From TrEMBL:
The keyword tRNA-binding appears for this protein: no
Enzyme Commission code(s) on record: 4.2.99.18
InterPro entries, per the entry: DNA_glyclase_Znf_dom_DNA_BS (IPR015887), FPG_cat (IPR012319), FPG_N (IPR035937), H2TH_FPG (IPR015886), Nei2_N (IPR044090), Ribosomal_uS13-like_H2TH (IPR010979), Znf_DNA_glyclase/AP_lyase (IPR000214), Znf_FPG/IleRS (IPR010663)
Coiled-coil regions, chain positions: none
Designated name of the protein: DNA-(apurinic or apyrimidinic site) lyase
Keyword Transcription: no
First-level EC class: lyase
Gene encoding the protein: nei1
Cofactor: Zn(2+)
């Protein structure tokens, strides 16, 4: 599932192709909205909210989409051939005189009133890339259950909106603790939250999730995806196991302190 910085980049691309222009093409290929036609409505903006996308149109209508694991938005210049996937995977087509956005394999496609956006994103915690970021509320939610493992808390979108499995592994490494450390034992929760914001902000306009400062392949992340490879800091082989909802966890047994699976 994409991280919040990837969703921010998608929103930027959708805004570049659509915002400020009236729709010349409106095609919803999902049963719930197969008869919907927004042709002629001006696209106001696409707003990222955690891992959700809210595309707003004049007249108080919003398109809510979520990529989950397999969804993807692709934008094309006027007249450019669509080359990103077979037609049967297309769920939404939005076109203007400035460009076309095609949504492939989107698992969530929902039209709703803009005034009712809270129904689909109101449950989210503070958005790490949002203009209304609230550090105090984020800290409160993170520490609400002091016994909860750090990795599980970071992945909970009710706590923080925008963190996926890459950052749920990289942030504990940068904090020097394992993903299984109870959040109540964090040495500096504020430093971790500030680091999370900095990482997502640094990556919000580029593909990939560089956490080491080195964009070369194989050097972008400290531990994520590096099972059995040497730690970039100390050389110890990176270990892997499962954590929240059977997601893969990675950690360096030398650089990170705290509970960890045995065996």
């Amino acid at each position: 599932m994409p991280e919040g910085d990837s969703i921010y980049l998608v929103a930027t691309q959708l805004n570049r192709a659509l915002s400020g222009h009236p729709l010349t093409a409106s095609d919803f290929r999902v049963p719930a909205h197969a008869t919907a036609d927004l042709t002629g409505r001006r696209v106001l903006e696409t707003v990222p909210r955690g891992k959700h996308l809210l595309t707003r149109f004049e007249g108080g209508v919003t398109l809510h989409t979520h990529l989950r694991m397999d969804g993807r938005w692709q934008t094309f210049q006027p007249g450019e051939r669509w080359r990103s996937g077979p037609a049967f995977q297309i769920r939404v087509v939005l076109g203007t005189g400035n460009g076309t956005a095609v949504g492939y394999r989107l698992p969530v496609v929902q039209l709703l009133r803009t005034a009712e956006e809270h129904r689909v994103v109101g449950h989210l915690g503070p958005d790490l890339l949002g203009p209304d970021w609230d550090a105090a509320e984020a800290r409160r939610r993170l520490l609400a259950d002091p016994r909860r493992p750090l990795g599980a808390a970071l992945l909970d979108q009710h706590v923080l909106a925008g963190i996926g499995n890459v950052y749920a592994n990289e942030l504990p490494f940068l904090a020097g603790v394992t993903p299984w450390l109870p959040v109540g034992d964090l040495p500096d929760p504020d430093e971790l939250l500030d680091g999370a914001r900095q990482l997502l902000d640094a990556n919000r306009l580029r593909p990939g999730h560089v956490t080491t400062g080195d964009p070369r392949p194989g050097h972008r992340n400290w531990v994520y995806g590096r099972a059995r490879r040497p730690c970039l800091r100390c050389g110890t082989p990176i270990r892997t196991a499962k954590h929240d909802r059977e997601r893969a966890a990675y950690w360096c047994p030398r650089c990170q302190h705290g509970p960890a699976p045995t065996g």
